[in-house]
Design goal:
It is built from ten helices and nine strands.
Length: 286
């Protein structure tokens, strides 16, 4: 399948550049998606973040070099570590032993082979979804800048939600909600490479209050998946299933747009929600 073939081609690009600074945008371009979507798909499919995979692969190859009696400082430089101290710290985190112990042949190391993706039979549990074409719409809310490596945002996003829930932002947004999709929106707007931001917002035609901003969501075709349960666990599980089970055989692929979580009820302990992902017809399906 072309979708999986492109992902595997991106892995080959990563493997060819493990001794260089890897350009995430080049890998994402090979996979025909944005950098944000590429990292998200990788993490859901591989079970680890892309940065951690690269770290393990580099340290796996570094161990081979050390076993061949290469100098620690040379191996550190080879894999992008200007400081031997930083290299030692990363190596020990991956292997549980020091580089010098490996070089001396007194310690065992771990091997992390290159990953490859394949279609497997999944999806015993049904997935409900709809395809919806929407014109551009406007949202009003608060936002925070996001980091290029998505795992670095695991503190930024919860912090923004915590602030919005305590400073009166959420009820204010609920009062401004006058357009579809109806609900409090969590928007991962990472389709402009130099301006990644996470938004907590509402679809509204009203003017943005002084402490808020507005964002125009472009026209897209959306795949919309309803769900329910305690959040964020339930919504994360649904997002993972979308990438692992639905997307590979759907005839669609990610379009270059924002991901949107629509919270339909205020009680996150027993929430109803929707996940909106921008999609386009896969090039292999026309």
């Amino acid at each position: 399948m072309e979708w999986i073939d492109r992902l595997n081609a991106s892995i080959r690009y990563l493997e060819d550049h493990l001794t260089q600074e890897i350009d995430y945008s080049s890998a994402a371009q090979i996979a025909c998606c944005s950098v944000c979507h590429y990292q998200r798909m990788f993490a859901y499919l591989a079970g680890i973040p892309l940065s951690e995979y690269l770290r393990r692969r580099r340290m796996s190859l570094a161990a081979v070099d050390l076993l061949a009696k290469e100098k620690v400082v040379d191996v550190a430089l080879k894999y992008g570590y200007a400081s031997p101290t930083a290299f030692n710290r990363t190596f020990q985190r991956v292997h549980g032993v020091t580089p010098s112990a490996v070089q001396q042949g007194t310690a065992a190391v771990k091997a992390y082979p290159p990953i490859s993706f394949a279609i497997t039979v999944q999806g015993v549990t049904e997935m409900e979804y709809r395809i919806e074409k929407r014109e551009a719409f406007r949202v009003v809310g608060v936002s925070a800048p996001m980091e290029a490596e998505i795992e670095k945002n695991f503190e930024i996003v919860p912090s923004l939600w915590a602030q919005a829930s305590t400073d009166g932002t959420l009820p204010q947004l609920a009062g401004m909600m006058d357009s579809d999709p109806k609900g409090i929106l969590g928007i991962c707007a990472c389709y402009e490479e130099e301006n990644w931001r996470y938004w907590i917002a509402a679809a509204s035609t009203q003017a943005a209050p002084a402490q808020m901003q507005q964002l125009e969501i472009p026209a897209f075709t959306w795949a919309v998946f309803p769900g329910s349960g305690p959040c964020p666990e339930s919504i994360q599980t649904l997002e993972q299933r979308i990438v692992r089970e639905w997307l590979p055989t759907s005839g669609y692929e990610y379009a270059d747009g924002p991901d949107i979580e629509v919270y339909l009820t205020p009680n996150l302990a027993d929430a109803r929600f929707e996940v909106w992902i921008p999609v386009k017809k896969s090039s292999s399906t026309g």
